[in-house]
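Supplementary Methods, section 5.1.

A reviewer requested that the exact input to the structure prediction be made available. We therefore reproduce it here, unchanged from the version used in the analyses.
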Amino acid sequence: MNRLLGIITICAAAIIGASLAFAEDLERVPFKAAFAVTGRVILYCTPDYTQQDLDRCHMAPVDLIEGAGDALHLGVMSDVQSHCLGAQDPSAPATLPFFGGLFAFTNAQGQTVTGEYHGRLVPTNTSIPPTMGPPQGAWIIEGVVCVSGGTLFRHIENDCKANRFFPARGITILNPLTGDTNESTLFLDQTIGRGKE
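The structure derived from this sequence is encoded token-by-token as follows.
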């Protein structure tokens, strides 16, 4: 029994020691990005709605988004992202929630930063909220984002797994008269955990 306890203690100490050593090899560096994107909304049972969309969004509409911008460490990059459109929040019926967001930034060298996001759109004085008809006009983006990985650095810490989110802000223009399209400008100002070079 004592021998078994000793083996367990040694294994636990080794795991803790390795975790501490790994944590010491990480550093957090600034990550800022500004980008402009265009999106289009797809509905369940349409040809573009995939099994992945169904698993993630559970039949909710999906906003498919592409664009480009500039990010610290990445440089000029493309952006491919999508998220699910949520049901109205009874406590804030004029807002438009979104959830299950996934993004991938890729620069010209093929280096990537990937992550997740969720949040809501908050009306401005030019917005038409869902309580008055199809949402349209200018909306403030209030979101949170986490980085899950990528190839930009030797190792990128999974902030999503650690539930470490940072604010994401921007503005979007909704236009249901052109097939539920939207144009947005977004800004990130956060940090990324990376392996020390």
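The mean pLDDT is 89. These observations are discussed further in the main text.
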